[in-house]
Here is the input.
Amino acid sequence: MVGSDATGVFSVARLDKISVGGFRSIQLLDSFPLTNINLLIGANGSGKSNFLELFKCIRAYAKLPIPALSDVDLKKYVLDFGTASDFIYKGLPKATSIKIELHFGIHGYRFSLKPTQAGLLRIDDEYLQEADDDTWQTLHSPDGYTPGLLGELSVSGSAASLMYESMKNWQMYHFHDTGASQR
Here is the structure.
């Protein structure tokens, strides 16, 4: 978690697992475990880039900079990279929303995004889990596009601030095949 432990050592909350439904080519990914360093290897078209794009989407959602967009929010992110329909899973059955759940140790955060008539994604619901139990607190977006999570950041050491600090520290590297067969 962000802060000092009893020995004064500074540490950061780590994203332990992620669940995703309805995002681009990801119909459903349930409780996918993550470690300090994660390496994705797979065939072309297997969803590696979409998995990385998911983390960019989450950072934009949380109003954190992403490559190519330093001043970003959910609206700008969607408009700069397409429309809401470009982010919704189109396989069968087609998705009507994007659902994301993040777990940082005993803390959790989940939200869903729905497309609007204007081609944007708006926050449909949002929940915060303070402890490792089945209790989820409902959060409320002030405008449908700004996460209620951001309103919870004022309490230092809160689950919201710990998770947000972790998101700020995410690093993503996207390497392309540069082997002899690539010209």
Summary: Confidence is low (pLDDT under 50) at residues 1-10. The CA atoms of residues 22 and 94 lie 8 Å apart. Residues 48-61 form the longest helix (14 residues).
